[in-house]
Structure to design on (216 residues):
Protein backbone atom coordinates (compact mmCIF):
# COMPACT_ATOMS: atom_id res chain seq x y z
CA UNK A 1 0.00 0.00 0.00
CA UNK A 2 1.30 3.46 -0.93
CA UNK A 3 0.20 6.15 1.50
CA UNK A 4 0.78 9.84 2.06
CA UNK A 5 0.03 11.31 5.49
CA UNK A 6 -0.84 15.01 5.70
CA UNK A 7 -2.02 17.36 8.41
CA UNK A 8 -1.05 20.50 10.31
CA UNK A 9 1.80 20.68 12.84
CA UNK A 10 0.71 19.12 16.09
CA UNK A 11 -1.72 16.70 14.44
CA UNK A 12 0.37 13.70 15.49
CA UNK A 13 1.63 12.69 12.04
CA UNK A 14 4.92 11.27 13.28
CA UNK A 15 3.27 9.09 15.91
CA UNK A 16 0.52 7.84 13.61
CA UNK A 17 2.96 7.25 10.75
CA UNK A 18 5.00 4.92 12.96
CA UNK A 19 1.97 2.89 14.10
CA UNK A 20 0.37 2.64 10.65
CA UNK A 21 3.60 1.68 8.87
CA UNK A 22 4.34 -0.96 11.49
CA UNK A 23 0.83 -2.41 11.18
CA UNK A 24 1.14 -2.65 7.40
CA UNK A 25 4.79 -3.78 7.43
CA UNK A 26 5.84 -0.98 5.09
CA UNK A 27 8.64 1.58 5.59
CA UNK A 28 7.84 4.96 7.10
CA UNK A 29 9.65 7.50 4.97
CA UNK A 30 10.07 11.07 6.18
CA UNK A 31 12.08 13.85 4.59
CA UNK A 32 13.86 14.38 7.90
CA UNK A 33 15.08 10.76 7.91
CA UNK A 34 16.10 11.02 4.25
CA UNK A 35 18.04 14.25 4.84
CA UNK A 36 19.89 12.79 7.82
CA UNK A 37 20.73 9.56 5.97
CA UNK A 38 22.13 11.42 2.96
CA UNK A 39 24.09 13.95 5.03
CA UNK A 40 25.57 11.33 7.38
CA UNK A 41 26.30 9.05 4.41
CA UNK A 42 28.13 11.82 2.58
CA UNK A 43 26.15 11.38 -0.64
CA UNK A 44 26.26 14.02 -3.36
CA UNK A 45 22.65 14.94 -2.59
CA UNK A 46 23.51 15.08 1.09
CA UNK A 47 26.35 17.50 0.42
CA UNK A 48 24.03 19.69 -1.63
CA UNK A 49 21.35 19.65 1.07
CA UNK A 50 23.83 20.43 3.84
CA UNK A 51 24.85 23.68 2.15
CA UNK A 52 21.30 24.95 2.59
CA UNK A 53 20.70 23.40 6.00
CA UNK A 54 23.88 24.92 7.45
CA UNK A 55 22.65 28.35 6.35
CA UNK A 56 19.23 27.73 7.83
CA UNK A 57 17.61 27.79 4.40
CA UNK A 58 15.00 25.38 3.03
CA UNK A 59 16.41 22.60 0.88
CA UNK A 60 15.24 23.27 -2.71
CA UNK A 61 12.50 21.09 -4.16
CA UNK A 62 14.78 19.54 -6.78
CA UNK A 63 17.20 18.23 -4.14
CA UNK A 64 14.40 17.00 -1.87
CA UNK A 65 12.62 15.28 -4.77
CA UNK A 66 15.84 13.60 -5.92
CA UNK A 67 16.37 12.20 -2.42
CA UNK A 68 12.78 10.96 -2.22
CA UNK A 69 13.04 9.33 -5.66
CA UNK A 70 16.18 7.47 -4.59
CA UNK A 71 14.55 6.33 -1.32
CA UNK A 72 11.36 5.12 -3.00
CA UNK A 73 13.50 3.13 -5.40
CA UNK A 74 15.00 1.02 -2.63
CA UNK A 75 13.93 -2.60 -2.26
CA UNK A 76 11.99 -2.22 1.00
CA UNK A 77 9.66 0.35 -0.61
CA UNK A 78 8.91 -1.74 -3.69
CA UNK A 79 5.61 -3.10 -2.34
CA UNK A 80 4.52 -0.03 -0.42
CA UNK A 81 5.49 2.89 1.77
CA UNK A 82 4.11 5.63 3.99
CA UNK A 83 5.33 9.15 3.22
CA UNK A 84 5.36 11.58 6.15
CA UNK A 85 6.37 15.18 5.39
CA UNK A 86 6.40 14.79 1.63
CA UNK A 87 4.91 16.14 -0.52
CA UNK A 88 4.55 19.53 1.18
CA UNK A 89 3.03 21.43 -1.73
CA UNK A 90 1.18 20.87 -5.00
CA UNK A 91 4.28 20.99 -7.27
CA UNK A 92 5.90 18.26 -5.17
CA UNK A 93 2.68 16.22 -5.35
CA UNK A 94 2.59 16.53 -9.13
CA UNK A 95 6.20 15.41 -9.36
CA UNK A 96 5.56 12.45 -7.06
CA UNK A 97 2.65 11.43 -9.27
CA UNK A 98 4.95 11.49 -12.32
CA UNK A 99 7.64 9.46 -10.55
CA UNK A 100 5.16 6.76 -9.56
CA UNK A 101 3.66 6.76 -13.07
CA UNK A 102 7.13 6.03 -14.46
CA UNK A 103 7.12 2.93 -12.27
CA UNK A 104 3.59 2.07 -13.42
CA UNK A 105 2.03 2.64 -10.00
CA UNK A 106 0.23 5.33 -8.03
CA UNK A 107 -0.75 6.34 -4.51
CA UNK A 108 -3.51 4.26 -2.94
CA UNK A 109 -4.69 6.78 -0.38
CA UNK A 110 -3.86 10.10 1.28
CA UNK A 111 -4.80 10.27 4.95
CA UNK A 112 -5.45 13.75 6.30
CA UNK A 113 -5.24 14.08 10.08
CA UNK A 114 -7.91 16.66 10.86
CA UNK A 115 -7.60 18.71 14.04
CA UNK A 116 -8.94 22.11 15.10
CA UNK A 117 -6.35 24.90 15.12
CA UNK A 118 -7.15 25.80 18.74
CA UNK A 119 -6.33 22.22 19.68
CA UNK A 120 -3.04 22.41 17.76
CA UNK A 121 -2.08 25.55 19.69
CA UNK A 122 -3.00 23.88 22.98
CA UNK A 123 -1.01 20.76 22.14
CA UNK A 124 2.16 22.51 21.02
CA UNK A 125 2.26 25.56 23.28
CA UNK A 126 1.70 23.35 26.33
CA UNK A 127 4.80 21.25 25.71
CA UNK A 128 7.79 21.53 28.02
CA UNK A 129 11.16 19.88 27.36
CA UNK A 130 13.62 18.63 29.96
CA UNK A 131 17.04 20.27 29.63
CA UNK A 132 18.76 17.10 30.87
CA UNK A 133 17.08 14.00 29.43
CA UNK A 134 15.07 15.66 26.66
CA UNK A 135 11.73 14.13 27.67
CA UNK A 136 8.71 16.18 26.64
CA UNK A 137 5.99 16.85 29.20
CA UNK A 138 2.68 18.67 28.77
CA UNK A 139 1.23 21.17 31.20
CA UNK A 140 -2.30 19.85 30.63
CA UNK A 141 -1.96 16.20 29.64
CA UNK A 142 0.67 15.33 32.28
CA UNK A 143 -0.86 17.44 35.07
CA UNK A 144 2.47 19.10 35.78
CA UNK A 145 2.45 21.48 38.74
CA UNK A 146 6.12 22.51 38.55
CA UNK A 147 9.00 22.91 36.11
CA UNK A 148 10.91 19.83 37.23
CA UNK A 149 11.25 16.62 35.20
CA UNK A 150 9.85 13.68 37.16
CA UNK A 151 12.31 11.32 35.44
CA UNK A 152 15.66 12.98 36.07
CA UNK A 153 15.04 16.16 38.04
CA UNK A 154 16.05 18.39 35.16
CA UNK A 155 14.52 21.79 34.46
CA UNK A 156 11.59 21.99 32.04
CA UNK A 157 11.57 24.78 29.47
CA UNK A 158 9.46 25.84 26.50
CA UNK A 159 11.22 25.52 23.16
CA UNK A 160 11.05 28.57 20.91
CA UNK A 161 9.10 26.67 18.23
CA UNK A 162 6.49 25.69 20.84
CA UNK A 163 5.69 29.28 21.80
CA UNK A 164 2.16 30.32 20.88
CA UNK A 165 3.13 33.04 18.42
CA UNK A 166 5.48 30.66 16.61
CA UNK A 167 2.82 27.93 16.50
CA UNK A 168 0.37 30.41 14.98
CA UNK A 169 2.94 31.29 12.31
CA UNK A 170 3.53 27.60 11.54
CA UNK A 171 -0.21 27.16 11.08
CA UNK A 172 -0.28 30.14 8.74
CA UNK A 173 2.51 28.62 6.67
CA UNK A 174 0.62 25.32 6.61
CA UNK A 175 -2.55 26.99 5.37
CA UNK A 176 -0.65 28.78 2.63
CA UNK A 177 1.65 25.99 1.42
CA UNK A 178 0.16 22.66 2.41
CA UNK A 179 -3.59 23.13 2.62
CA UNK A 180 -3.87 23.38 -1.22
CA UNK A 181 -2.31 19.91 -1.23
CA UNK A 182 -5.42 18.62 0.50
CA UNK A 183 -7.59 19.97 -2.31
CA UNK A 184 -5.23 18.47 -4.89
CA UNK A 185 -5.67 14.99 -3.45
CA UNK A 186 -9.39 15.53 -2.96
CA UNK A 187 -9.59 16.22 -6.70
CA UNK A 188 -7.60 13.00 -7.26
CA UNK A 189 -10.33 11.23 -5.24
CA UNK A 190 -7.85 9.53 -2.90
CA UNK A 191 -8.17 11.81 0.15
CA UNK A 192 -9.68 10.48 3.39
CA UNK A 193 -9.99 12.69 6.46
CA UNK A 194 -9.37 11.22 9.91
CA UNK A 195 -10.44 12.92 13.15
CA UNK A 196 -7.10 13.34 14.96
CA UNK A 197 -8.53 14.41 18.33
CA UNK A 198 -8.64 12.09 21.30
CA UNK A 199 -6.27 9.36 22.56
CA UNK A 200 -3.51 8.22 20.20
CA UNK A 201 -4.91 4.67 20.15
CA UNK A 202 -8.33 5.90 19.03
CA UNK A 203 -6.84 7.95 16.20
CA UNK A 204 -4.84 4.92 15.06
CA UNK A 205 -8.00 2.79 15.04
CA UNK A 206 -9.76 5.36 12.84
CA UNK A 207 -6.84 5.40 10.43
CA UNK A 208 -6.63 1.61 10.18
CA UNK A 209 -10.39 1.40 9.66
CA UNK A 210 -10.07 3.80 6.71
CA UNK A 211 -7.26 1.66 5.26
CA UNK A 212 -8.98 -1.70 5.72
CA UNK A 213 -10.85 -1.71 2.37
CA UNK A 214 -7.50 -1.27 0.59
CA UNK A 215 -5.67 -4.09 2.37
CA UNK A 216 -5.04 -7.15 0.25
Amino acid sequence: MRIVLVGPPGAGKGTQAQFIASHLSIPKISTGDIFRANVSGGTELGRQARQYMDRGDLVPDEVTIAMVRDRLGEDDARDGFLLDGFPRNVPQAETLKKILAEWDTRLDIVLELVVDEDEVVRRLSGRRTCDKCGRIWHVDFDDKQDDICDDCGGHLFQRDDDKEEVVMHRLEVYRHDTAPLVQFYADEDILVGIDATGPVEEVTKRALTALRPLEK
